[in-house]
Amino acid sequence: MIRIRSARSNNLKSLDVDLPRGKMIVFAGVSGSGKSSLVFDTIAAEAGHQVTETYPPFLRNRMPKWTRPDADEISGLSPVVVIDQRRLGGNARSTVGTITDTWTYLRLLYSRVGEPLIGESTRFSFNDPAGMCPTCSGLGETVAVDVASFLDPDRTLRSGAILLPGIVDGGYWHAKYVDAGAFPVDTPLRDWTEGERLALLYGGEHAARLETRPPADFEGLVEWFERIYLRTADHLSERKQETIDRFTRSGTCPECAGERLNAEARAVEVHGRTIGELASMEVSELPDFLTGITEAAVAPVVSALMERLRAMDGIGLGYLHLGRATTSLSGGESQRVKTVKHLGSSLIEMLYIFDEPTVGLHPQDVEAMTGILARLRDKGNTVLVVEHDPAVMAVADQIVEIGPDAGAEGGRVVFQGTFAQLREARTPTALALADRAPAATAPREAADVITVKHAERNNLQDLTVDFPIGVLTVLSGVAGSGKSSLAAELVDQHGAIVVDQRPVGANRRSTPITYTGIAAPVRRLFAKASGLPAKYFSANSEGACPECKGLGIVYTDLAFLEGQETVCARCGGRRFTDEVLHHRVEGLTIADIDDLTIADALERFEDRTIRKALGHLDRVGLGYLRLGQPLTTLSGGECQRVKIAKELHDTAEPSLYVLDEPTTGLHLRDVDTLVKVLFQLVDRGHTVVVIEHNLDVIRRADWIVDLGPGAGRHGGRVLYEGPVSGIRGTATSRALGQG
């Protein structure tokens, strides 16, 4: 048994539970009930910490950091492998081939039996100078700064001629350029000399040629932009990515045509095919080609490659190609790619933890995923799965439901047993299983249509599709059938508000308080009650604890030892000075506000501005979030619902909305809440198009566009478009029970 006693992470209520080893256990419960707190923040955190502790300090400093959970006892653990939904890196050099090691096998194959023979396998690596294309440095595309978009020639430098974000009038960087002393700051840029414009853009030798030179540390705009936006971390905030898209131009590399390799590597063939051609073939096609390679010298390589490719195909990823960038994969695709890496492992008695592995999967494809979970268990491992899908619950050895509700009303074990026993219980999950949503009996009538014409993106086969205006439309079909491609064409051809699952906060200071804009009215309440200026009630300003600068934690770099995050000793994690914490509103300090859930705040505050902003978050099912919870800790589905709430708050004119699987991370009960929110958007005159696999959402849609019949080259066609009640003869109709 895995034995847990008095677990108290987040909202867990001194939880006790015994989990049988060597079994597949599904953790269910409403959103925010404490499932992740138990599985990830308690079990995974303790197992990860104990494994990390076995390594020398030098290595520990370079390994993932695990915060030990708050519990009296945790025993019976194994080394843990967490397979979550985080997208696979932002590194432009990472592809499906490199992340699954299939590219390593292909490189080895071509270095041994390729014609002509050109040497070691590194000659076929686009991450090695010996193999990469010299023009694009192995990236497959070239990115150039669009200098022409940096400046407005009709303005003066002082009045805002520099259009780059971050260089705004009155700001630090704007002053650096205006006060450089080398430019005619009150003359429109179109009247500057060529030398002056080049000096502003590129600095360096151009600046040195000016009669009046700028300071020695002067940095041209191009260098500044590249440093701030291009030479940065892998994971970019949404705002930074938008800026990069606006001020750069990218395109397929003219020399290697996107293959990433140099001319010598591109010329080598095995049985008439280059390695670049194999990289562009679908995973499901590659085994047919490999069976023709019978040279004894590479038999082990071919065998290992075939096993990996068939595993990818079996998990529903056969439509991918090895050259596809991992940055373009969805969270669900990323999770399945990670799973493939572990299928060939010879380790046993491991602890595998999955976070909603059916995300992004059509009901038809779920069986393949549950089969893989069973294979991992049958090898002698313990498999823990956080999941809402009844199909996964049905094949589990045991189900543990946490609840009964979200936030402060959750954190307890309300059921433990088999799926059959769950169906007889009276828990929130059992009740939701028994009360499935009805189909839309009277679909809304469309006001008009908007048409996507001749869509050929990715696998789309010259599609022309009408989308009805003023209704809820679902894009359905198996994974890889072309749903996202068609949605992207809709956005490109007609413009739309895209509500996706990308993070909404770039740093830990971003919280529901700051995101919703209620920080100012909350500070005003405290300022009025205390007589102090409002800025004293900001953890980013005068009221911040001077020790931790308002973060509540202090990070200590211990060189070769593991760096430590500790609760600030001066403020006890409260983030504010003692003077500020003396003042209260309705018995609460400003620090207590952070600990309130959105639902609690709605009950306590009468201020209309606060109630209106928080009400939208509560309506999309996020009432359990704490006001001070960093937005960086939210799941992809939670991020999407935060964005939906913002749109409910901001929208006025009828608009087109495109949403990507908004039910991600939602309990069956909460799906109904989400559908009602989508209906609110439609009732306000908006048009809503949703990419979705959830059958309860599909049943209640007004219109459906079903793509398929398969994935990749086997998809990209419209199988049906019309009212949901009329769909027949497709994978989606069979899942709906309509034949």
UniProtKB/TrEMBL annotation:
InterPro entries: ABC_transporter-like_ATP-bd, ABC_transporter-like_CS, P-loop_NTPase. It comes from the Bacteria. GO terms for biological process: DNA repair. The keyword Glycoprotein does not apply. Keywords: ATP-binding, Cytoplasm, DNA damage, DNA excision, DNA repair, DNA-binding, Excision nuclease, Nucleotide-binding, Repeat. The keyword GTP-binding does not apply. It is found in: Cytoplasm. Pfam families: ABC_tran. Residues 444-734 form the ABC transporter domain. GO terms for molecular function: ATP binding; ATP hydrolysis activity; DNA binding; nuclease activity. GO terms for cellular component: cytoplasm. Gene3D superfamilies: ABC transporter ATPase domain-like, ABC transporter ATPase like domain, P-loop containing nucleotide triphosphate hydrolases. Belongs to the ABC transporter superfamily. UvrA family. This is UvrABC system protein A.
